Amino acid sequence: xxxxxxxxxIEDLRPMSLTAFRxxxxxxxLRADALAGLTVAIVALPLSxxxxxxxxxxxxxxxxxxxxxxFLVSLMGGSRYxxxxxxxxxxxxxxxxxxQIGVEGLILATFLSGIMLMLVGLLRLGDYIKFIPFPVTxxxxxxxxxxxxxxxxxxxxxxxxxQAAPPEFLHKLAVIWQARGxxxxxxxxxxxxxxxxxxxxxxxxxxxxxxxxxxxxGGVLAWGGLPVETxxxxxxxxxxxxxxxxxxxxxxxEILAALPFAVAFTLLGAIESLLSAVxxxxxxxxxxxxxxxxxxxxxANMGSALFGxxxxxxxxxxxxxxxxxxxxxPMSGMLHAVFVALVLLxxxxxxxxxxxxxxxxxxxxxxxxxxxxxxFLSLLRVSRADAAVLLITFLLVVFRDLTEGIxxxxxxxxxxxxxxxxxxxRLEPVTPTDAVPRxxxxxxxxxxxxxxxxxxxxxxxxxxxxxxxxxxxxLVLDLSRVxxxxxxxxxxxxxxxxxxxxxxxxxxxxxxxxxxxxxxxxQFGHHASPKFFDRMEDAMQESCANRQG
Length: 549
Fold this sequence. Notes:
Structural class: mainly alpha
Largest sheet: 5 strands, mixed
Protein name: C4-dicarboxylic acid transporter DauA
Distance between the termini: 45 Å
InterPro entries: SLC26A/SulP_dom, SLC26A/SulP_fam, STAS_dom, STAS_dom_sf
Subcellular location: Membrane
Pfam families: STAS (PF01740), Sulfate_transp (PF00916)
Main location: membrane
Strand content: 5-15%
Number of helices: 24
């Protein structure tokens, strides 16, 4: 008879919405969530359209993503307060995907990414994704911010480009520079006014929806005849409802073309959503479930793709707004999606009057907020190693590729960590206790090993131990302050014991924890085996003559 899953697994993958309703949900909670959901929807509405346009797709796809993906993230995810939708961090990846494999390829890549995220959650790998070094997160976030800002220059100033701006950062700037003589003053004033309105309201009226107000004012001016390019001029009328769900094409050639982009979506989506969930935890005092969150993100991406949307992830700014607005649980996220759907149903004809310069101003503010200025400068000052990880990630993201930047930065960050951990390991001589007769300490050397003894530390400590083993008939190592030994560290102990045995000596290990002793014994096998002691006094009184093989 098959065994049922362990309760820990079920709890780890349970959506937070079930937990919230199980704990009790009142009419008062619903009112609070409705207000929070409306507040978030007001923020999400202009952002979703702006992110979609910057990503190279129509604004309606940003709304589809916010509605379907946002609803499913809150329903199925592992964070009580997470708000899902299109994110600025994905603009670079989505735009590159559309450029290379088209919108249909983007939808397929989003669907495949959803499958991958579900598998990552089911395999309970969420805790490992959070081990991305902080300099890497600052580097790729700041790099994305710079690319977003560069992508909005043309719409911000109303430039007439002779050719479409290429995705490469320097080439994009070159094309924009060539069109510098086509700056449109009216468009520029609308964009600058949008930025000024958002920043001014944020400072003097922080409770007001600055982005929505700025966009509405710009839309009214355009509707009144202001000569600026609008959403309707470039994209035509917006649909007033969600499209019918449709599976993307699953031809082998299409899958192979979309797979690299799907992997990139999965990597960035997992990192971004878990970072957002951690931010929500810090603001609310709650604790999210990483694997349930990734499972929910996977379902949300598949659902978004079915309705013509693109990548969904947890969004830090909207999630923080949700918490500050008084959300009581996942219902506020689901209601935010419902409110956005109502806007699509009732106000789609009005949205065509929104100036593209206004949306560019919104994204310039988003990019400025994304660029983690204080953290960036702090990391440059803290240490050369952290600065190197930060700059490598940042430069690769800007000038090469987002995925390359994350992978290279994480690898370099791991190497820095290994070096620091290996340098933290210490080997210190120990003076034998007075309780042990002097004649028993002759030809005996005692050392205390401190810190994790893994492959990084073993490379350094092994050479020191090898030199020490030339001297005594008996080498005693105090391992009571060694929390961890890996197989590389254990193998260096095997070599040390063999050398001592050839010289007629022996190795004694004192105070090893059961976990450390288990790893050591597994590697010694039939080779020269040390003796294990609980106390230093017992090891010092042991004679090499009667040691066990």
